[in-house]
Amino acid sequence: MLIDSHFHPQILQESLSDDQLAQLLHRAQQAQVHILLAVAVSLADVNYLQRLAQTYPQIYYSVGIHPLYIDQGCLPPAFVLPDDPKCVAIGEIGLDYGDDCSAEFQQVQQAVFRMQLQLAYQQHKPVIIHNRHAGHDILKILAEFPGIKGVLHCFNDSLEIAQRAIDMGLYLSFAGIITFANKSLDPLREVIQQIPLERILVETDAPYLTPVPWRGHYPNEPQYLTAIAQKICSLKNISLTQGAAAFTQNTMTLFNFQYDD
Ligand SMILES: [Zn+2]
Known about the structure:
Elements: E1 2-7, H1 9-12, H2 18-30, E2 33-38, H3 46-55, E3 59-63, E4 87-96, H4 103-123, E5 127-132, H5 135-142, E6 150-152, H6 159-167, E7 171-174, H7 186-194, E8 200-202, H8 225-236, H9 240-255
Parallel strand pairs: 1-2, 2-3, 3-4, 4-5, 5-6, 6-7, 7-8
Helix pairs in contact: 8-9
């Protein structure tokens, strides 16, 4: 069994009917992906994700504002989490210093990141963190919240950032890019070899980042999670059974799922 710790059904549904989405979730079940965490990128997602989690016992969800979904003109208001046992995390939140990110917008992102970390801290919820070219600032801000639980999702940063994150008690989640042949991704594969199995989660980030051998297909689907899990297991020289048991245990521990099969 595997848990897809990060996918975006609210984005998938833009290109799929309700029926097609049900079929996609069925294919995930067939591929042993028995639990899925549906991750919000804006507060506009919350009603849809909540409804989906009510419909499908295997779906849990998070609530949060992704840095690229912040309205640059005005800071988002403080928000509260739904009183719902299936809302298990705050995310995705974080910093995205993509190509043309101004210093002013970096400041805004940091303020919104802190606001959401504060909420996570008060509510004792783990956070799902998005990081683009901002690893050092993310760890600096996280250090203001000692003991906070969370995961650096779709990890694609240096071994130094990975080790510091692990020292802070965080988990690292890996997506389809680790299966891409690009030589430039070899350092990321080395990170996987260096870090403890006990800190690794797996995710598809569907509809994005479809893994090899389906690379280039849109949308990506949770059923392809096995290819990502398999890649990690071969890098760590362990069986898929052993790896899958660890990824599942790690994800349950972090998000504190109440799940009866
Ligand atoms: Zn995502």
